[in-house]
Amino acid sequence: MIISIAPNSAGKSDVVAFKLADQDFCIDIGLVREIRGWAPATLLPHAPDYIKGVINLRGAVVAVVDLAARLGFGPTAPSDRHVIIIVLYEGRVVGLLAELVSDIVTLDEAQMRAVPDIASDPSREFLSGMATFDDGRILRKIDLAQLLPRTAGV
Description:
Elements: E1 12-20, E2 23-28, E3 32-37, E4 51-57, E5 60-66, H1 67-70, E6 83-89, E7 92-98, E8 100-108, E9 112-113, E10 127-132, E11 138-142, H2 144-147
Parallel strand pairs: 2-11, 5-7
Antiparallel strand pairs: 1-2, 1-8, 3-6, 4-5, 6-7, 9-10, 10-11
């Protein structure tokens, strides 16, 4: 599925919502280039444990990050139900492994909350905010600047 980006009103932003470890997360839609089904990845020697390997994306070699493992939920055992969200961030194309993409959501600034300041929560550094909804659901927004290391390999 290829996603086209439509302009949005001031104070609102569109995000791609997805699930990891039965939890709701999102990233800015402007970063997403493609959503594709799981394809087996080729392992890389000495890669961090959250790197599932690399895939061939129309001739380009793309690293796949296991988001659940990166966020501390444990490694994912991917199946045909899983998806790879292809993102373009700071000139790098990277695949993000998720359970499923659930929706494209328009967020209003009024829905956004700061991530609670809990020193014992190491995953806090990977989140840029949390969107709250009237039904009690919370959508955590991933900060790719913190999530993706600046080293070779991803």
